[in-house]
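for the writeup, i need someone to sanity check this before i put it in the appendix. the sequnce is what the collaborator sent (i think, or maybe the updated version? ugh). structure was predicted straight from it, no edits. if anything looks off just tell me and ill rerun, i have time this weekend
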Amino acid sequence: MSLFPADPAISPATPAALRELIESRRAVRRFTAEAVPDEVVRDCLELAVLAPNSCNLQPWSFQVIRDPALLARLHPVCMSQNAAKAPLIIAVLARPDTWKQACQNIIDYWPEPDVPARIRRFYNKTAPFQYNQGPFGLFGLFKRQLLRVAAWRKPLMRAPNSQAQMRIWAVKSTALAAQNLMLAFQSHGYATCPMEGFDEVRLRKTLSIPRQALPIMLLAVGKQDEKGVYNPRLRFPLEQHVTWL
């Protein structure tokens, strides 16, 4: 349950309010030393995990780093960039390795007294077949060959059927959660900076990241300091990226 429950009297956010929130978010490179309250961090994480994700398997995890000594050790790992001096850093990890436990969690945490039969079937049979790649990816190889034949007759979902595709699968859902997380902090008045500039080998040693977890970003969080935003916003013309069909 959120520490900041929604007020039923408040109407949903208007397009203008959503635009204001999104446009106000910038990658901030300098932060004050002011700490981010734990209750704010928890609320933002609760909003992060409301992100849409594949088959509701929620393939993500987060490491919340607040200890000053650990933050100091992280600074050189993050190429000594200014954003890494933030009072809070959250390691956002994609987890292609947690699908099996997640299938069981769906059954265990189902929000109704009885789990529908179709839900049990899907998470006990369909999802394990879809996401299991087997030792060394051999089952995934078998499925790819099977799909090549079966797909002659009808359209079929052809991924993820390899360890590499599982990593992509997990990263896509985790990136959605990361965007929720940044906007949540923005709504509380805290700036963020998603950092991809880090030494992954040293990061894994510093934070004891599970072997199969993928660190997709380190999110610096805090109050924006003077000159925290380095440059004006620049986006390419929408026409370069959008095709209307």
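The longest helix spans residues 163-187. The longest strand covers residues 214-222.
thx in advance!!
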